Amino acid sequence: MTEARFDETTYRPDPTRKSNAHAWAASYMANKGRFKVLEIGCATGLDLAPLLRGFPESQFVGLDISQENIREATKLYPNSKWAASDYMVFQERSFDLIISERSLSVFECSDDALASKLASDLQPGGVAVVTLPASCLCTTAHFTLKKTLRRLRSRPLDAFFLWLAQRLRPGVDKDTLADRVIYMYVVPRRIAGRKFYDVLARHGLTVEQDYGVMRCTPFETPHRLLALRKSAA
């Protein structure tokens, strides 16, 4: 499960930010026939839209815990399938590809439960492409700071972070930046490191690719992209 504060919000994807997981998925899907694809944490569907247009023969499901996000996605892309649900209780399976950009790190379930769910939802030989915080000193420092900020959170502090974001990202509109203030206080529950990789392996998921992705600002937690393949056996 994810934390309740994400349940009833509309998250506007940042149009200036490239989704690494979706870019990887587009390259992976090219010239390979039809796919059944799930996006976990689809928000309003902006990141999934290029895949919807580029691969019309494939079947896509956009999943988000926020009903507001799903209502907006349904308005924007009425011919696609969208579902408002916690991923851990979502029932549809047999996906060839699962995409998750920066959402799995905040799930409250155990690593074992998450790895088991991903493995059970993928077809044999299927792939999950996800981004998670990197295991490094910078991430540790960010997490320590976020824990302190959670204790100090107030409206003036929220306003300060929004003011700072507007100066660091002048090309992004205020509402989109305001959506992201909450992430200054969110401490992820898992990172891209050996401990999590070992859990994935126990559930038949092999890390086939693992590399760092570019940050938009120095204040952003470093992330890594992982391509996880389910055993074909």
TrEMBL record:
Claim: NADP is one of the keywords in the record: no
GO MF annotation: an example: methyltransferase activity
Residue stretches making up the Methyltransferase domain: 37-126
Organism domain of life: Bacteria
GO terms, biological process: methylation
Cross-referenced SUPFAM superfamilies: S-adenosyl-L-methionine-dependent methyltransferases
Species of the source: Reyranella soli
Gene3D superfamilies registered for this protein in UniProt: Vaccinia Virus protein VP39 (3.40.50.150)
Pfam families (alphabetical): Methyltransf_25
Keywords: Methyltransferase, S-adenosyl-L-methionine, Transferase
Name of this chain's protein: Methyltransferase domain-containing protein
